[in-house]
Amino acid sequence: MPRAAIDITTDGHVHTRLCHHARGEMEEYVQAAVAAGLQKIIFLEHYETAIEYFESTWLTEEDFIYYHAEGKRLAEKYQGIIALGTGVEVGANPDHLQDAVDFLKRFKWDRIGLSYHYLQTDLGHVNMVSRRPASIALMEKIGVENVAAAYFDGLKKALAVLPADVVCHLDAVMRHCPSFSFSENHFARTMEILTLMREKDVAIEVNTSGFALRCEPFPSLKLIKEAQRMGVRLVAGSDAHRPEHVGRYFELLPEMLG
Ligand SMILES: [Zn+2]
Ligand SMILES: [Zn+2]
Description:
By secondary structure, the chain is an alpha/beta fold. The chain has one domain: Alpha-Beta Barrel (TIM Barrel), CATH 3.20.20. Helix content is 39%, strand content 17%. A seven-stranded parallel sheet has the order 1-2-3-4-7-8-9. α5 (144-161) packs parallel to α6 (184-200). Residues 89, 115, 117, 168-169 line the site of one zinc ion.
């Protein structure tokens, strides 16, 4: 039998209350994954470094110590019922990549996801995936094309340095900016990143949170097909920020990616 295009028995991208913008304890997410019939859940909590922002959407080092201890406890408690991994969603900060390299060495990770959320500006950092009107206004002021160029440059730089297993929500940048649309030029930039991913055997995430916003995952089906054609591996992630989001829309993937 040919290997399926994507494994939908593992949710590889789950948050918890520890990142301050998700709800629910780690154990509630594990229970939700069991209820959804999954075989494995991988937590992928937020790490960011040197970000100036009005709120923290990431874990401190102490939070990560608790996170790993709780992950180990739950892995033992749920042994034979569901497999559990503790990973990290590393937010790229292109000017502070060594911080991230050093941090990653301090813990053992089941998966390292690479994302790029916060762009440095003269007015501090802007969250490029935020729906906040102030974030959108700031990106409009900088110019969405300038933000896009910086996004692709920064992600590429981070990918070259960080030991990532997977790139998360590749085209979710400026997803809430009405004036931004993904152009042929952005497509070409994405191809450069996919080429680098293939060289480094970094997988691409099919992030099903996109379905809630646009009837398509992040990245778009067009980009996923391109990644498949190039031989880049696909992994599924719900980007759950509520226990009930675990494994969301996974049932749509086999037919779509077939
Ligand atoms: Zn993210
Ligand atoms: Zn996430």
